[in-house]
Amino acid sequence: MTRSTRQRERERESETEQDEQEGVRACPECDSENLVKDGDRGEIICEDCGLVVEEESIDPGPEWRAFNHQERQEKSRVGAPTTQTMHDKGLTTTIDWKDKDAYGRSISSKKRSQMHRLRKWQERIRTKDAGERNLQFALSEIDRMASALGVPRSVREVASVIYRRALDEDLIRGRSIEGVATSALYAACRKEGIPRSLEEISEVSRVERKEIGRTYRYISQELGLEMEPVDPKKYVPRFCSELELSEEVQSKANEIIETTAEKGLLSGKSPTGYAAAAIYAASLLCNEKKTQREVADVAQVTEVTIRNRYQEQIEAMGIHS
Question: N or C: which end of the chain has fewer CB within 10 A?
Answer without folding.
Answer: N
